Every structure is written in C-alpha cells, then in structure tokens.
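Lab meeting prep.
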Amino acid sequence: MSSFKLALFNARNNIKLFKFNIICMVFSIAVFFNFFSLIFNPALNLENTDKLIIKATLYMVSILLVFFILFFILYSNSFFLKQRKREIGIYTFMGVDNSKIAMAFAIEVIILGIVSLILGLFSGMVFQKAFLMLLTKVATLNKEVTFYLSINAIIVTCVVFVLIFSLAALKGFMSISKSKLIDLLNAEKQEDKLLKTRYITGILSIVLIWIAYIYSGKIFTESFFTNSSIVIFCVILGTFLLFSSVLSVVIRFMINNKKILYNGTNIVSISNIAYRIRYNYKTLACITIIVAATITSIGAAFCVQYLLQSTVKVSYPYSFSYVGSDSKVKGKVLDTINNSKHEVSIDIETKYLLFDSQKNSKLKKNCPVVKFSDYSRIIGTLKVSNTDSIINSAKGLEDGDSISLASSNDSGFKNNQLLNMYGLKIKIKETINVPLLGARFSNNTIILTDNDYNKFRENCSNQVVPEKEWTFNGIIVSNQGDSLELSKKLASIPELKDNFTSYITYYSLYNEATGVVKFTGLFLGVVFMLSTASIMYMKIMSDAIGDKKKYEILMKIGMNEKEIYHAVSKQVGLSYTLPLIVGAVYAFIGIGALQTFLSKYLEVSLLLPFLLSLVIYVIVYILFYLLTTRKFIKLVTSK
C-alpha cells in the first residue's frame, strides 16, 4: 500500500477522531478570512487609513492572529499525533517503514488541511454578511458595509494556511521518522525529566520582558511598526524563556520543601506536574500570550467606549454651539429647533476674549479668556460632576491668578507659569479638566477674576489691531443622540457656515473612526477566549490520559474520591493560574501603554475598563477550570 493510499485509509477511519480538529481549523480559517476581508473591504478602506490607532491595532492583531493560529494548529496536530502513536507503533511492528508511515501522516495532514481550507473559506463567505451586520451594529457605522468577495483576502488566507499546514506536516513527518518502536508503543507511559534550573535563562527572560515594557510606551508613534514588532518578539521569546526557567525553579522549590510536598495530596499533584514540565511549559507560555491578547483585546474595546463617553462630556458638552451675537441668527436657530422633534433644555450665552499666547512667534495660539463669574454660572448650569468642589476650589482665585481649562489638542500651561497678557501679569494657578466652551477651541481656556478680565478687555482694545469681545452660544437639546437630521438643518443656515459644532457629528465621526477597533477587540477577545478553552481542554485531557493509570493505582491502594478531587484541582489549577497571572500583567502593561499615549491629550484613567475586562475574563476562566477539572476527574476515575 502506497503512502497516499495509507493516508486516505487513515483519514476515513479516523474521521471521528479528526472531527474536533477539523472544526477548530475551519473556525480558525473562517475567522482569519473574515478579518482580512474586513481590512480589504473598500467600503471601510482600512488598508489605506491614516488613523494611527486603527493602523496600529490592525497590524498588531494581524501578527497575533497568525501567531495564535500557527500555535493552535500545530498544538492540535501534536495532540492528535500523540493519541495515535500506539497506532503508528503497530504499523511499524507490522513491518511498515517509518519513512512511509511519516509520509502517510504528512499527506494526511495536507489532505485534512485542504479540506479544512475549502470548508473554512466557504464558511467565511457564508457568514460574512452576519459578520458585517455585527460589525455595523457594534461599531455603530453610519455607512452601509456590503458583502465584498475579496480576492486579496482569499490569497492571503490560502498562502498563510498552506504554509501552516506544510509546517505541521513537516513537524509530524520528522517526529515519526525519528521515533523508535518501543517509544511509540509505550508513548503513554513516557515521562519527561525535570528541567534543569536555568538562572541565566530566567534573567534573560526578565530583560526581554523589560525591553518589551519600555517599547510598549512607544507603540503609538510614527514608528509603531518597528516598536510593536519589537514588543511582540520580546514578549513571545521572553515568555517562553520565563516559563522554561521559572517553572523549574518553582517546582524544585516545592519538591525540596517537605512541608509543602507532604501536605495532603500535594505529592501527587506536584509529581504529575514535575515530570511533564518539559512538554507543558511551551503550552503554558503560549496560553499566557493568548490570555494577554484576550484581556487586552476586550480591555481595548471597553477603553474605546469609555474614552468616547469621557471625551464627549468635556469636548462636546453642548448639542450645538456657534459664535455670534446677532439676535436674528439666534432666532433662526431656535425656530429650527422648535420646529423639530427636539426641545431646548439649556441655552447658554457668554462673552469671551482671545489671547494669543505666542504673539511674537509666527504660529498663533489663540486661547479663549472667560471671567470667573461666567465660568461659575456655566459649570452650575451644565451640572458638571463635583460642581460645588470645582467652584469652591476656584473661589480663592485672586487678582493676578488664573485657572487653565485643559484642551485635548493643547499641551497646556504649567502650574505657576507666568503670562504677560498684553501688559496684564497673570500666573497660572492650576490646570483642570472640566467642560466649558467645548472642543471648538483647540487651545486651553483661561479663567480670570472679573476684575482682571475687565483690565484684559481694556488692554485688548488698546492693541494696534484691537481684539474684540466675542459671544459664545451653547445649546443642549432633548434626545441629542438622535439629532443628526437637526444638526444638518442648523449647519445649512448661511450665517453658521464654518461657525458651527455639533455633538452628534463628532460622536458619529468618532464611532466611525474607532468603531472598527472596538468591534475587532470584542470579536477577537471572544475568539481567543474560546480558543484558550479548546487548547486548555486538549492539554488537560492529554494529561488526564497520561495520568489515568497512576490514579487507578492510587485508588486501589486506598485514595478516595475527595482526595482525588483535591489532587486534580491543584494539578489543573496550576495550569490555569500561572498563565492568568502573567497574562494579566502583560495586559495591564498594554493598557498602560494606551493610557500613556492618551495622557498627552486627556486626563483619563483606563483602570476601570481594564478591571472590567479582567473580571469578565476571570469569571469565564473559572468556568473553564471547573469544567475541565470535572472532565479530568471523570476520565481518571472511569473504568
């Protein structure tokens, strides 16, 4: 029988064994295809986007997705190969040459890969419409994203997966070719030796992770391709080195510490972990990276939504705003609103002046200047959170002092910075982040005492080119989230041309710009979460099959079900706990890098969305742990 016929024969007879593997590969291919279809879809034009955060997100997700799928397929093939080593040993015992069996296995992997690729592409195309509908819903896009069969996405998917399946086939071929008959027949009884303690490797892993930490703060720059590649490379290599060195140190410490080793069923749990550590540390390292990617993906999605709510409150506190004191224009605006389905909730009008803080330079930096009494009135009317404390903290403002209100586009003034405002000496007391005039002004707003404001107004009028006093109008309407049609009508008033800002317009643009990031984060978070469950399931089941005979012997010499439960819980628990702890630290650093980037423009803490994503993941993770522990116990105790 030729290798090809043997491969076909095995594929047909092992279809039940391969069913789970094929489902996993088809799912991976469909996800990969839909993700790249999203990038190449002309309606979204993501491949040509000039938005740094979207480009960085898509680039990093693409690398992580390829890494994850590569590991997932290689691991699942290794898992199923391990379960079939006895079958391969029987073929060898019957006289079939190792190279012929290895070639048959390689062909089998290629055949299953081609079948999975065809089914995955077909599934991806079938479910692409649902995928796009979900994208439109989660990202709240205003544009219609239609079905688009991307040839580029098909080519990328085929090339990537053909390479992955070829690598899996080559890995299996080499593994079988080098195997000995006795090793194949006794594959289930083989145990790894305890890893040597590698202190230098441990130090190197810490150095690599530290380098990744340093470069993580430089990801969101023009060099994000280079910096993010360094971060990913250092994290992956550092994690593998960390687990190969630290795990051996931890296990040796527990073995040498007799109080820990002989406490309850610890001796069973620790010995089972210790003598499978060489095989398991690679799996745990990969799971750690996937855990980090999952928490970061979900956290980033929550951060995008959290940032949207935070920035809107400060940058766009009004439904609509414009500058002008013409009563006729004001009448047109109010009439347009009254003739719509909306009502005016708040109507604010205030005077302000402009101060060019860089008057002697070529670059103008016009900062609006508002008097303290108007500032207090507006803050109270807008019902800003902590209104009383904000106003009370500023009540001690004296002539010669001022408060600076932060702008998202301005690095602002330093505390105690001295300003010469056309002859008026002013010191910036502090800079705070509260809404007032909104984002129509790109520079910080300066609050002066009423007395200093009057002096500054007089100084403005005495300039060679007198600076006039302006009138700001801010209006809040009911149900502003559905005010896009009203916004378009107001923007069409001739007098408001180039002099009109709208909350709903900004909200829509922001959602369109970051909605894809939000959707990608949530979707990949779910994908990685399910995949983590699949990998952990295969790992735990592989351990259970290997430990079944040990537990059978332990039960015969008197070990009861409660003791087995405790031993298994600790053994499985370590496999879950270590990746979760290290992965959560990586995710925290990743979210921290995003906050460092955003801190240049906003005073916002991303700790809450990070903790929310972590809590959600931990809850799901605990459910995985309970299910796999139960399955492990059921397998080792079954007759």
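Slide two material, second protein:
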Amino acid sequence: MVTSRQIKYIVRILVWGILGFHIGIVVLLNIPSVQNKLASIATAELRKLLNTEVSVGYVEMGFFNRFHIEDVLLKDHQGDDMLNLQRLTARFEIKPLLDGKIVINSVQLIGFDIRLKKDNPESTPNFQFVLDAFASKDTLNKSPNLDLRINSVFINRGQISYDVLSEAETPGKLNGSHLGLRNLSASISLKALRNDTIHAIIRRLSFEEQSGFQLKNLVAKLTADNKQLNLSDFSVNLPTSTLMLDSVKIHYDSLQNLPKLTDDVHFKGQLNGAFVMKDLATVVPAFKELDYPLDISLAFNGQGKNVEVPLLSISDNRHLNIKGNASVLNWDANRNMFLQAKLANLSVTKAGINYFMRALTGSVPSILQRLEYIQFKGDADGYLHDLQVSGLLQTGAGSLNANLLINSDENYKRTYSGGLKTNDIQLGKVLGDNKFGQTQFNIEVEGFNYQNRYPESYIKGIISSLDYSNYRYENISLDGIYKDGGFNGHLSLDDENGMIQLDGTFNTVQSVPHFNIQTSIRNFRPHALHLSDKYVDSSISMNLVADFTGKTIDDLNGLIRLDSLSMHTSDSLVYSLDNLELTAGQVGTHKEIRVVSPFLNASVVGDYSYQNLPTSVMHILQKYLPSLLGSIKTDSNQM
C-alpha cells in the first residue's frame, strides 16, 4: 500500500522533473545554433506556404510564453520587397489556451516597412497571396468561436505605403491611390475580442502622411456587443487643431446590421473642438492660408441613414459666425437625399471677407469689398434634385429677399428658378459707380445657370425704382431671356419724364455685336432725366427700328429706320421728321452709306471714317458754296 509520504515524494519528483525539462528547453532554445536552426525552419515553412522569397534573421523562444523574431524580409510575387521587419516580440499566457482563449500580454512591433501596391484599380493587389495562404480552408465552420485579449500593443517607427501604379501622383495633396504613412507610432489595448463583443482602447496613435498631413495623436475607447456600441474619450489632435467627441452611443438589434445602417440602428453624439482649416490643406489645398481657429460645436442623432443635427455652431469669435440646424433623410441617396435645414445666422465681417477671400483665392473681388459685410438667414427644404431655398441676405449695400428652387439634373448641373426682391439695394455701391443710387425691384427668374461663362435665364419682373444720375426712374418692366451675354424680349419704362417700349434682341458681348430692336419713345425729356444739360423743357418722341451688326460705327452693317420724330418745347413744336432710313454696308472693298428722307436722298461710297465724314462734307461745302456755309455758321452761332 502506497503511503502519503510516498505520494508526496513522487509528486515532488514529477514537479522537479517538469521544471527541469522546461529549464532545459529554455536553455536549449537560447543556444545560437538552435536559434539559427529555428530561423531556418521558419524561413523554409514560410517559403513553402507563401511560394515566395522569405528570410528570417533571428528567432527566440523563451519559457514557452515569449516569442521574439528579428530581420524578417518578405517579397511579393513580382520579386519586390513587401515587408521589412526589424523586430517583433510577443508574450502570451499558456493556461487560457486550454480553455480555448488567446491571451497575449504584450506585442511589440518595432521598425517595419510595408509596401502594398496594385497595377491598376481593377487588378489584384500584391498582398492577396498572403491573405489566400492564411485563409481558413474549413468551409463548414463559418462562425468559429473567437476569444482574444491583447493587453498591450506597442508600435514604433512604422512605415506603410499603398500605390495604384496606373494613377497619377499629386505631390502635396492627399491621394487615395498613393498613400504613404511614416513615423507610425501607437499604443493599443484590446481588452476583449469575441464573436459578439469588442473592447478596445487606443491610448496613442500618430503618423505623418507623405502629402504633409500629420496626425499628432488619436485617443479613444470603444466597447460594443450585440446590442450597442459606445465610443468615449475620443479626441483627435492635428498640428494646430483639437477635436473631441463626447460619448457616442449606437443601439441596434444585431452587430451584423451595424455596418449596413439599417433602420434598427440608432445613434447619438456631440462633437466639440477648435479646428484650424490649414491642417487639412493636403485635402483641400485652398485651406493652406486659413490659420484662424474655428470653435465648432455639433450635436447629432439619427436612425439608419437618417440623421438630425439639432445644433451646429461654427465661429472664430471675430469675423465668422454660423448657427443653424438640419436633418437629412437617406444621406447616401445622392440626388434623392432629402434635406431640411435652417440657418439661423451666417455672418461675415468686412475683415472676415478679406481674410477668407485672400486665403482661398489670393485676392478679394472689388464687389465683395464694397459689400462691407454679409449676413444671411434662411431655410432649405426638399430633395437635392429639387431644393427649395428661401432667406434674407443683408449687406452693407442693402438687403435682398430670395425664394428659389434649385434643380439638379443627373449630371449635377444646377439651375435656379424663383423670386428676388429688394427695397433698398444701393446699386452704385454694388457696381462701384456713383451715377447709380438705390433701387427697388421684384423679379422672377427661371432656369438661371451659367453657359459659356455667361449667365442664362428667363427674367420677368418690375424694377419699381432705379436711381441714376440723381434721378429716380420708375416703373421699369422686363420680360425676356438673357443668354450668351445678350437679351431677347421686352423692356419698358413708364416714367413721367419718358415712356419707352423696346422689343427685340441685342447682344453687345459677341465678337461682332448684333442689334435687332423696335423701339417706341414718347415724351422723353433728357434734361429732366439728368442725361443732358441741353434741351431744357424739351421732349422727344419717335419710333425706331434697328437691325444691324458692328463693333464700332466704322464697321456698321445694317439698317436704322426712324419715323414720327418730333421735338417739343413747353409751348411749341421745334422740329418734326416723318421718316429717315439709313443703310450701311460694303460694296466690294468700299464702304457705302445710304440716306433716304423727305429732305435728303444720298449715298456715299468709298474708304472713309464715319467719325470724320461730317467734317469732310463741311470742307466740300466750303469749297463750292462758301457763302451758304458762312450763313449756316452764323445761324448756328445765333442759336
């Protein structure tokens, strides 16, 4: 019969035997020749598995729970370096393995260079063979039990590059086809990773991108299970910016539905921080001169692909202030996304206009300088392809009410239709012309857009008043199409000092301007309208038809017909003319002008300048009719 003393002796012998065996193995694994043999075995097995060139410089195993490897080189199937690794060290626990768990106490990844690439966007990447080699061959077990814990992951001096070789490089600008991270450093803890649970802490993450973008630090805590996800203590530090997310909570029916953002996914959170736009100059190069910090506050909540922003506030506490709220339905539906937004205040001071325009474009348009400041309050409601926008724009030159429908076609070409109304715009201040003063108008536009550098639109409305040359014109109506720098339609003025009706088309910006108009003028008083110092108490009436082309009077080609011309003073008729027709054009290589009227029928053919033609006629009259010319001059002087 075995006594208890004998049992203790046997157990003691077994313990010391196992411990001695373990120590022996550890000692054996630290012998250089054994380590070299392990490196050779690892190299051979990886070459066989990956079917490519692999080398492992050093392998060390310690106490069965520590793994250390150095100088790893892995080439892709084209023979180019894909991975260079200086050192990888891992410590793990053995006991949890018996329970189907993986517990890794620490992982250190020091000095690595990963180079990923593909020939073109459709080709297979150079690392695909690695994924295929380590992919599970078990097609039956689709959901293996996963229970992983990594207490500490330390990464230092890392480099990762990704290139699509067929795509153009953009030095100084972030490019998804040519990414290059360097000085990658991180400290991460994966507290739990199971099929239905994740708990991770990012204590530090930083890198530099080859475009110039820098992530100084990222910190976050993430917990998730089958019903909810919590993101807390999230902050991002850029060179001059800090953004923080208050606790973000996401609730859902199943973890698998979270990436799909189905309707059972509910989320809520808030973003705060001080953001300097130049930190994103590698994404938007125009931001490179914008170095003022913007205080940002953004609250959001939503369900699925619908999001509501009850609070949006952006301010630099000096020149820019934005406050509003919005809601978006089906944010991934492109043109069919539905938007409701209210902008409670958008204000930019004169100094702000100068700062932002100089930073973004290098100069400040003179019209914006004259506006002094900009304030806007308004609403937007509708699908992106038919968005209704209304609001009040206020500037140092006056205010403008707008109610517009913005239409976007399948090519995202936008047109604008709706109403514009103002009672106090200082048009002279807007145009930089002191001859203009205040104006009031109420007009409708339809299909407004830009074509060939010029605005294009159907325009209809009333200009109630327009100050010009210290006179207020009233009751100007327009109805027509403005296109390619020209107008085709109807213009009219119904003022006590003149009634004008104009129908037709004219374009003054073409290489050869064209006019085809019919005009009726009644009781036109140029002196009262402050257009002339002459013709006091005189009024002019006439009908005019013009159909001609020409950039200057010397290349005039066409017809001008005038009839029913009369000029009245306060008590008498001074002059009248039944009709006059002037035709100008070319006869061979010579100019020709014809005049037909009740008192004169004439034609002139030759090489001459219309500007000098009257002087030439006077010289001819002086030569052949000196006495008549003298009487004409005398009469003219008496007048």
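Talking points for slide two:
Residues 388 and 423 are 23 Å apart (CA to CA).
Residues 4-29 form the longest helix (26 residues).
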